[in-house]
């Protein structure tokens, strides 16, 4: 004899969906479609001025900007690759997998202070070249800098090389 609970599971069930079909269209704006993907209609829409989706540039930066529908090329925005001449270079461009790992701690403001200023401060203190407020009597070029000048120098290209 079949139990009544087993008979209930055999009865077919229908679900009711309350969302509109929107004539078969769905909201795909949140899904990124690269330029090579999509239908012919999608590609034609991307070519028009009022495109729905952003053009995927695949990581390539523009070398200019668009002004009044025309592209203006900026020479400073073109990347310049500088490659050194390695004709008589003795080392080979290979690092063996057997090479030991280099473990280095994070470079903090304290490390920077110790590398640049601490020797000069200790030397001035030992030689008695500090005034009553602790300021140097003969300041170096870095010590003479104002805060704004130091920020400008720090943001310059090549300032991280020391």
TrEMBL record:
Pfam families from the UniProt entry: MRP-L27 (PF09809)
Signal peptide: none
Main location: mitochondrion
Subcellular location: Mitochondrion
Lineage: Eukaryota, Metazoa, Ecdysozoa, Arthropoda, Hexapoda
InterPro entries registered for this protein in UniProt: Ribosomal_mL41 (IPR019189)
Any Gene Ontology CC annotation: mitochondrial large ribosomal subunit
Family classification: Belongs to the mitochondrion-specific ribosomal protein mL41 family.
GO molecular function terms attached to this record: structural constituent of ribosome
Protein's gene: LOC106126599
GO biological process: translation
Originating species: Papilio xuthus (Asian swallowtail butterfly)
Transit peptide found in the keyword field: yes
PANTHER family assigned to the protein according to its UniProt record, in alphabetical order: LARGE RIBOSOMAL SUBUNIT PROTEIN ML41, MITOCHONDRIAL RIBOSOMAL PROTEIN L41
Transmembrane segments: none
Name of this protein: 39S ribosomal protein L41, mitochondrial
UniProt keyword annotations, A-Z: Mitochondrion, Ribonucleoprotein, Ribosomal protein, Transit peptide
């Amino acid at each position: 004899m079949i139990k009544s609970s087993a008979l209930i599971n055999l009865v077919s069930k229908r679900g009711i969906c309350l969302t509109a079909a929107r004539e078969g269209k769905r909201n795909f704006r949140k899904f990124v479609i690269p330029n090579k993907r999509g239908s012919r209609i999608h590609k034609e829409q991307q070519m028009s001025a009022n495109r729905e989706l952003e053009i995927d540039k695949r990581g390539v930066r523009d070398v200019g900007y668009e002004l009044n529908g025309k592209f203006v090329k900026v020479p400073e925005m073109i990347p310049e690759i500088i490659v050194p001449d390695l004709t008589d270079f003795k080392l080979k461009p290979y690092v063996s997998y057997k090479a030991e790992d280099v473990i280095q701690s994070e470079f903090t403001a304290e490390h920077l202070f110790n590398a640049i200023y601490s020797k000069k401060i200790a030397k001035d203190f030992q030689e008695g070249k500090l005034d009553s407020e602790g300021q140097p009597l003969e300041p170096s070029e870095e010590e003479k800098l104002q805060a704004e000048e130091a920020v400008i120098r720090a943001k310059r290209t090549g300032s991280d090389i020391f």
